[in-house]
Backbone:
DNA sequence: TAGATTGTTAATCGATTAACAATC
DNA sequence: TAGATTGTTAATCGATTAACAATC
C-alpha cells in the first residue's frame, strides 16, 4: 500500500540497513537508535528516519527501533521474507564465479536473505546438463519454460555483449522484471522492467580519472 | 586545471560517451551531434553538453563534435590516453574471472582504453608464482613493493569480507588512490581515496523489491 | 545568408540536511 | 517528570532540464 513511489536511492539503502541488523546480536542489542544504525551503515540518522518513513512507522519515540522488528520489516519491504529464485544466463568465467559465490554465501549462518540461485542457462551444448556448485545448467532454448516452472524472478546476465539484448528480451518475455546485467551494453529496456548495471569496464574507466 | 570540482555523476557518464565513440567508424562519421551521441548513450543532448562544459569547449556551433577529437579529449580527461596499470587482490573464483575477463577484453581491436591488468595478489602459498591468463600471482606480503615497481594505480578487491579492510589499508599505504571493491563490507575510507562498490548481494537484495 | 547546433544561463526538480514538535 | 529519540516539516543543496543567444 505505497502512497507515493519510493525513490530508487532509498530502496538501494535498505539492504545496507538490513546487513547491519543481520550483524547485530539481537539478544545483546534488542533496541537500536537511528544514530547507531547510521554510524554502522554510513548514513546520517536523519536520512535513515526519512527512508523508513516512506514505508510506515517502525520506531518508538525516545527509545529507538526493535532490532528484531526492524529487520523483519526490512525483509518484508524488500520481499526477502519469502524465497526469491534467481537464475543466471551465460555460464562463462564470470557466470560460474557468481554461481559459486552465491552458493557459498547461502551456506552461511544467515541464509543470504531469501535469495536462491536455482538455475543457470547457456548456449554451449557441452555445458548443458552439467552442474556448477549444485546449480544445473539448462539450454537457453528451454529458458522460458524453466523460468516459469522454477518461478525465477531475478536474472543475472553474464553473457557476451553481442548476446545480451537477445537473452534479455527472452527473459522479459518469460515474465522476469528484475535484472543484474554484467554485459557492457546499453540495453533497450521496456517500461516496468528494472535493470541494475554492474559494468566493470565502466567502473574502471571512471576510476582512472581518480587514479 | 579544473576550475571547480566535477561531480562524480558527470565522471561516471564520460566512459559511456567514450564507448559510443569507440563503436563509431570515424571515417564514415567524422562529426557527431550531442543529439545523436545522446540517443546512443541514453542521455539527453543537453546533459551531454553540460557535462562536457565542465572540461572545456570541444564542439563547433552549428556543426557538432569531431568524433576523433572528442574521443581523444575524453580519453585524456579520464587519463586513459596513457597506460593505467591495474592490480587485483584475492585470486578466488571471482578474482580469476575478472583477470580472464580483463585480459580477453584487451585482446579486442580496441585495447580496452589503456587499462592493463598487470598483477594479482593472494595469500595462498599454492597460488603464488602461478599465472592466470598470463597475469602473475604474487604474495600479498610483497604487495607494497610490486605496486610501486609496476606503478599500479587501480586495485580490484575480490577478497573475502573479513580480509577486505586489511588489504585495502595496505594498498592505500602503498599509494593506490582508486579501488573497485567487490567485498560485501563498508570500508573505512581515508580522505582523497576513491572506492567504487560492486556489491552483488546488495544489488540483488534491492532488485528483490522490484521483482 | 539561413539553418543548425553548441555553450551557457535560468528554471525546475528531487534528494539531503537541519530542526523541532510529538511522545515514549 | 526529565531525557531521549522518533517522525515530519521546512530549508538547503545539487543535479537535471528547458531555453536561447552566440556562432559556425
Residues:
Amino acid at each position: 500500500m505505497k502512497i507515493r513511489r519510493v525513490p530508487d536511492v532509498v530502496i538501494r539503502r535498505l539492504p545496507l540497513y538490513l546487513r547491519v541488523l543481520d550483524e547485530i546480536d539481537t539478544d545483546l542489542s534488542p533496541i537500536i537508535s537511528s544514530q547507531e544504525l547510521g554510524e554502522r551503515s554510513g548514513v546520517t540518522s536523519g536520512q535513515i528516519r526519512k527512508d523508513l518513513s516512506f514505508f510506515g512507522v517502525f520506531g518508538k519515540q525516545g527509545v529507538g527501533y526493535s532490532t528484531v522488528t526492524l529487520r523483519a520489516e526490512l525483509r518484508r519491504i524488500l520481499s526477502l521474507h519469502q524465497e526469491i529464485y534467481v537464475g543466471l544466463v551465460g555460464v562463462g568465467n564470470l557466470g560460474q564465479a557468481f554461481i559459486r559465490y552465491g552458493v557459498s554465501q547461502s551456506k552461511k549462518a544467515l541464509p543470504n536473505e531469501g535469495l536462491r540461485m536455482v538455475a543457470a542457462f547457456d548456449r554451449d551444448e557441452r555445458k548443458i546438463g552439467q552442474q556448477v556448485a549444485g546449480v544445473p545448467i539448462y539450454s537457453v532454448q528451454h529458458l522460458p519454460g524453466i523460468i516459469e516452472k522454477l518461478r525465477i524472478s531475478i536474472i543475472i546476465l553474464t553473457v557476451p555483449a553481442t548476446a545480451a539484448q537477445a537473452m534479455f528480451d527472452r527473459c522479459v518475455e518469460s515474465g522476469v522484471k528484475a535484472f543484474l546485467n554484467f554485459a557492457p551494453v546499453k540495453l533497450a529496456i521496456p517500461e516496468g522492467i528494472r535493470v541494475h548495471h554492474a559494468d566493470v569496464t565502466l567502473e574502471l574507466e571512471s576510476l582512472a580519472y581518480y587514479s
About this structure: Residues 8-76 of chain A form a domain with the Arc Repressor Mutant, subunit A fold (CATH 1.10.10.10). The mean pLDDT of chain A is 93.
